[in-house]
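Exercise 7.
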Amino acid sequence: MSIKPIKNNLISINIISLLIALILLFGCSGNHQKSDAYGNFEVIETTISSEANGKILKLDIETGQILEVGAVIGYIDSTDLGLRKAILKSQRAAAASKTANIQAQIAVQDQQQNNILLDKDRVEKLLQGGAATTKQMDDIDANLNLINKQILATKTQKNSVKKELTVFDRQLDQIEENISKCRIVNPITGTILNKYAEAGELTGIGKAIYNIADLSEMDLRIYVSGDQIPTIRLGDKVEVIIDKDKKNNRSLEGVIGWIASSAEFTPKTIQTKTERVNLVYAVKVKVQNDGSLKIGMPGEVNFLSTKK
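Solution. The predicted structure, written as tokens, is:
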């Protein structure tokens, strides 16, 4: 039996195994290249709080519901405000009635003033003909001076009543504003993320009712190292990679919308391209959401500018 052919066969088998291993190694490394940056998707969440005190009479919202801006979704009891409004209206009406009385007084005083002026004109003519005395003229002047002061005082009362009515008007405006705040109006278009109150519960000014966010566009917050910062710019298009299933990924297009002006320590949950780096810069990549992106979902980024 010859030993040499057996050795040759073993060598050939080893060479083939080595070639297969190298192919698999390079093939795996080519399919699993590290991305330039990693992070998680986030959105700007808006918490809608109560602007009034009282019982929630109606609240027609559910988690996951999409709301349009300006939608009236509920009401807070405004009975007390309505009663205060009625009281203020009655007080204003009573104050307004004073104006009519004051105006009537002014009309009477104006007539008295005209009568005195006629008497004065008549006495002046008689005085020139020697048929009247100086004392009669002095009495008329005194009466004229008195009626002028009375008219001035009455007009002052009228102005005071006008100011009082203005105060009532502003108080009524304030009541109307508070009543309008009893309507729960959605301020932005978006999806309800959490609901913190129910109809029938008591609420107060500043107490959260729900929070909402616009999920049509999401931000992928990533962290890049100092040697990556010079290569990226605001408005640059990037490749965003998310998980499609357990084995495959999905590629999306993103745009760099914000770059931090100062560095920070690497978050513990983030791995950057350069491992063990101490300081990194936060970057937000804006991505249009087709419904597949969720808050907190991980994502990866490849900077196209560095690939060119």
